Amino acid sequence: MAKYGQMIKEYFMITLAVIVMDIGVYVFKFPNNFSFGGVSGLAVVATHFLPFTASQINLLVNMFLLILGFLFLGKGFGVKTAYVTIVSSLLLNVMEVFLPMNAPLTNETMLELLYAIALPAIASALLFYESASGGGTDIIAMILKKYSTMDISSALMLVDAGIVVVACFTFDTKTGLYSICGLMAKTLVIDKAIERMKLNKYFTIICSDPDPICDYIMKELHRSATVYKAEGAYSHQGKVVILTVMGPKQAVLLERYIQSVEPDAFLMVTKSSEIMGNGFKRDI
Asked: Residue 225, Cβ neighbours under 10 Å: how many?
């Protein structure tokens, strides 16, 4: 039951991320012709040459790339990626029917650019955190990574940059410049959002009585710790060093507890976004 509960939670978060991403794309990106990468950016450019809407082109291209992904990457390339691709594409077409937009939401282009960047970027970070991806050009990047020496970030940047270059020649100079800014800003927002989601705190606790602290870590916070003996360089008194890693909320509780049971304990807390092991995210 715990496994199914975790799976339901993951797919709920993935679905929420898809909704946020599609709002950013449909409400802010499509009406302004912003084309800073991704299939949605390609769809914006393609509407200039084809008699289809951006949502329809987005659906067709995503289905084609999904098939391409299975052919070149195999079935293991991601059930979650397939789910995101299908739901996102269908949701954009549903929005087109029930929320038609013939013009930008406001007259503030810069404000709309910020939302067009922030919403999909935060959604993408959440998808990566849940070991999924947004599909689309992510699939092309995964294929390039498999058959070349490029890493996934470089491959994705190359694909998105190609779409931005085409947009610069398709639309006016202002739209092209906005698209270039959008590509750079999107990359930064995704990196920062992922780093924030992965944030944990690494504790180095030097104390005299480790038992109450270790009991609290294991029984109340449901974490583990590593303990070893040490000696003070000045006093030559025996000490115990406790090493443990906590999430942000657990870190606050542990700090309060240590202050209450052993206020003289020496405590060093280091922020870290690269923690791997049992109980912590691995595939981001």
From this structure: 17
Which parts of the chain are beta strand (E)?
200-207, 226-231, 238-246, 266-272
Q: For residue 96, which of 25, 163, 145 has the smallest C-alpha distance? A: 25
| Two structure tokens written together for 172 | 């006016």
The per-residue pLDDT for range 85-125, each reduced to its tens digit, is 888 888 988 888 888 888 888 888 888 888 888 888 888 77
Helix, strand, or coil here: 179?
A: helix
92 contacts 59 by C-beta, under 8 angstroms: yes
Q: Residue 117's beta-bridge partner residues?
A: none
Of 64, 184, 180, 176, which Cα lies nearest the Cα of 121?
A: 184
- CB contact at 8 A, 103 and 31: yes
The 10s digit of each residue's pLDDT in 179-221 is: 778 777 777 777 777 677 777 889 999 998 889 999 999 989 9
The amino acid that residue 89 corresponds to is: S
Please give the radius of gyration of the chain, using alpha carbons only, rounded to the nearest integer.
24
DSSP structure string for 140-161: HHHHHHHHSS--HHHHHHHHHH
CB 40 within 8 A of CB 58: yes
